[in-house]
Write a structure and sequence with these properties.
Length: about 170
Protein backbone atom coordinates (compact mmCIF):
# COMPACT_ATOMS: atom_id res chain seq x y z
CA UNK A 1 0.00 0.00 0.00
CA UNK A 2 1.51 3.32 -1.10
CA UNK A 3 4.20 4.41 -3.54
CA UNK A 4 6.54 5.90 -0.95
CA UNK A 5 9.97 4.41 -0.31
CA UNK A 6 8.76 1.64 2.02
CA UNK A 7 5.90 0.59 -0.25
CA UNK A 8 8.01 0.63 -3.40
CA UNK A 9 10.94 -1.22 -1.82
CA UNK A 10 8.57 -3.89 -0.50
CA UNK A 11 6.81 -4.16 -3.87
CA UNK A 12 10.05 -4.50 -5.88
CA UNK A 13 11.48 -7.03 -3.41
CA UNK A 14 8.28 -9.11 -3.48
CA UNK A 15 8.07 -8.99 -7.29
CA UNK A 16 11.75 -9.99 -7.52
CA UNK A 17 11.03 -12.96 -5.23
CA UNK A 18 8.33 -14.19 -7.61
CA UNK A 19 5.17 -12.65 -6.14
CA UNK A 20 2.52 -11.08 -8.32
CA UNK A 21 2.40 -7.50 -6.98
CA UNK A 22 -0.29 -4.83 -6.98
CA UNK A 23 0.46 -1.51 -5.26
CA UNK A 24 -2.50 0.62 -4.18
CA UNK A 25 -1.86 4.39 -4.19
CA UNK A 26 -4.54 6.82 -3.06
CA UNK A 27 -3.09 9.73 -5.04
CA UNK A 28 -2.92 10.34 -8.80
CA UNK A 29 0.28 9.17 -10.49
CA UNK A 30 1.76 12.69 -10.59
CA UNK A 31 1.20 13.11 -6.84
CA UNK A 32 2.21 9.64 -5.60
CA UNK A 33 5.18 8.96 -3.36
CA UNK A 34 3.75 10.02 -0.02
CA UNK A 35 6.02 11.68 2.51
CA UNK A 36 9.02 10.04 0.83
CA UNK A 37 8.57 12.28 -2.20
CA UNK A 38 8.93 15.31 0.08
CA UNK A 39 11.81 13.91 2.15
CA UNK A 40 15.38 15.03 1.79
CA UNK A 41 16.40 11.50 0.92
CA UNK A 42 19.30 11.23 3.37
CA UNK A 43 20.05 7.66 4.42
CA UNK A 44 22.31 7.27 7.44
CA UNK A 45 24.69 4.32 7.27
CA UNK A 46 27.52 2.99 9.44
CA UNK A 47 30.94 4.22 8.29
CA UNK A 48 31.68 0.63 7.17
CA UNK A 49 30.43 -2.91 7.70
CA UNK A 50 32.38 -3.61 10.87
CA UNK A 51 30.75 -4.50 14.17
CA UNK A 52 32.39 -1.43 15.72
CA UNK A 53 30.86 0.91 13.12
CA UNK A 54 27.42 -0.64 13.62
CA UNK A 55 27.75 -0.20 17.39
CA UNK A 56 28.71 3.47 16.89
CA UNK A 57 25.66 3.95 14.63
CA UNK A 58 23.41 2.42 17.29
CA UNK A 59 24.94 4.48 20.11
CA UNK A 60 24.78 7.77 18.17
CA UNK A 61 21.11 7.36 17.27
CA UNK A 62 20.08 6.18 20.72
CA UNK A 63 21.87 9.21 22.21
CA UNK A 64 20.23 11.54 19.68
CA UNK A 65 16.80 10.21 20.73
CA UNK A 66 17.67 10.67 24.43
CA UNK A 67 17.16 6.93 24.79
CA UNK A 68 13.53 7.19 23.68
CA UNK A 69 14.04 5.67 20.25
CA UNK A 70 13.28 2.03 19.62
CA UNK A 71 16.44 0.09 20.42
CA UNK A 72 15.16 -2.84 18.35
CA UNK A 73 14.53 -0.71 15.26
CA UNK A 74 17.80 1.21 15.68
CA UNK A 75 19.71 -2.09 15.84
CA UNK A 76 18.00 -3.28 12.64
CA UNK A 77 18.96 -0.02 10.92
CA UNK A 78 22.54 -0.30 12.15
CA UNK A 79 22.77 -3.88 10.88
CA UNK A 80 20.93 -3.50 7.57
CA UNK A 81 21.22 0.06 6.23
CA UNK A 82 24.44 -0.61 4.29
CA UNK A 83 22.82 -3.63 2.61
CA UNK A 84 19.70 -1.56 1.88
CA UNK A 85 21.78 1.09 0.11
CA UNK A 86 23.50 -1.59 -1.97
CA UNK A 87 20.09 -3.07 -2.82
CA UNK A 88 18.84 0.36 -3.98
CA UNK A 89 21.93 0.72 -6.18
CA UNK A 90 21.34 -2.75 -7.64
CA UNK A 91 17.83 -1.61 -8.62
CA UNK A 92 19.36 1.30 -10.55
CA UNK A 93 18.94 4.07 -7.97
CA UNK A 94 21.74 6.60 -8.10
CA UNK A 95 23.12 7.66 -4.72
CA UNK A 96 25.88 10.07 -3.79
CA UNK A 97 29.13 8.74 -2.33
CA UNK A 98 28.98 8.45 1.48
CA UNK A 99 29.93 11.54 3.47
CA UNK A 100 30.56 11.91 7.19
CA UNK A 101 27.72 13.46 9.17
CA UNK A 102 29.06 16.21 11.42
CA UNK A 103 28.71 15.41 15.10
CA UNK A 104 28.13 11.70 14.51
CA UNK A 105 30.20 8.61 13.80
CA UNK A 106 28.01 7.67 10.82
CA UNK A 107 27.98 8.51 7.16
CA UNK A 108 25.12 9.34 4.85
CA UNK A 109 24.13 9.05 1.22
CA UNK A 110 21.35 10.83 -0.66
CA UNK A 111 19.62 10.12 -3.94
CA UNK A 112 21.25 12.00 -6.81
CA UNK A 113 21.34 14.79 -7.74
CA UNK A 114 21.07 15.69 -4.05
CA UNK A 115 18.87 16.36 -1.07
CA UNK A 116 15.17 16.82 -1.86
CA UNK A 117 15.71 16.82 -5.63
CA UNK A 118 16.87 13.21 -5.76
CA UNK A 119 14.11 11.42 -3.88
CA UNK A 120 11.43 11.77 -6.61
CA UNK A 121 13.95 10.36 -9.09
CA UNK A 122 14.73 7.42 -6.79
CA UNK A 123 11.03 6.65 -6.39
CA UNK A 124 10.53 6.82 -10.15
CA UNK A 125 13.41 4.37 -10.63
CA UNK A 126 11.70 1.88 -8.31
CA UNK A 127 8.35 2.36 -10.11
CA UNK A 128 10.05 1.59 -13.43
CA UNK A 129 11.76 -1.49 -11.99
CA UNK A 130 8.44 -2.75 -10.65
CA UNK A 131 6.73 -2.19 -14.01
CA UNK A 132 9.52 -4.00 -15.91
CA UNK A 133 9.14 -6.97 -13.58
CA UNK A 134 5.39 -7.09 -14.19
CA UNK A 135 4.10 -5.35 -11.06
CA UNK A 136 1.19 -2.94 -11.29
CA UNK A 137 0.32 0.27 -9.49
CA UNK A 138 -3.31 1.25 -9.09
CA UNK A 139 -3.49 5.03 -8.65
CA UNK A 140 -6.40 6.90 -7.10
CA UNK A 141 -7.16 3.70 -5.20
CA UNK A 142 -7.39 4.17 -1.44
CA UNK A 143 -6.98 1.20 0.90
CA UNK A 144 -9.93 1.10 3.30
CA UNK A 145 -9.51 -2.08 5.32
CA UNK A 146 -7.63 -5.34 5.52
CA UNK A 147 -9.51 -8.50 4.58
CA UNK A 148 -9.01 -11.24 7.17
CA UNK A 149 -9.51 -14.99 6.91
CA UNK A 150 -11.44 -16.96 9.51
CA UNK A 151 -8.17 -17.78 11.30
CA UNK A 152 -7.07 -14.12 11.44
CA UNK A 153 -4.61 -14.06 8.55
CA UNK A 154 -4.59 -11.04 6.24
CA UNK A 155 -5.73 -12.24 2.82
CA UNK A 156 -6.29 -8.96 1.02
CA UNK A 157 -7.26 -5.30 1.05
CA UNK A 158 -10.58 -3.60 0.38
CA UNK A 159 -9.96 -0.37 -1.54
CA UNK A 160 -12.01 2.44 -3.04
CA UNK A 161 -11.50 3.93 -6.49
CA UNK A 162 -13.70 6.00 -8.82
CA UNK A 163 -15.83 2.93 -9.58
CA UNK A 164 -16.44 2.10 -5.91
CA UNK A 165 -15.15 -0.58 -3.55
CA UNK A 166 -12.97 -3.40 -4.85
CA UNK A 167 -11.27 -6.27 -3.05
CA UNK A 168 -7.68 -7.16 -3.82
CA UNK A 169 -7.01 -10.69 -2.60
CA UNK A 170 -3.54 -11.96 -1.77
CA UNK A 171 -1.70 -15.07 -0.63
CA UNK A 172 0.67 -13.01 1.48
Amino acid sequence: IGTGMAGMAAAVAAQSAGAKVAVLEKMAAKDGGGNSKLAGGLIAIPRDGSAEAKTEYFEDFMKKSSGKGSATLTKVLADQSLDAVEWLKAQGCELTPPITVAGYRVKSVVFKPGAYKGMPKGLETLRQVLAKKGGKIFYETKAKQLIMSENGAVVGVRAADAAGLKDYHADA
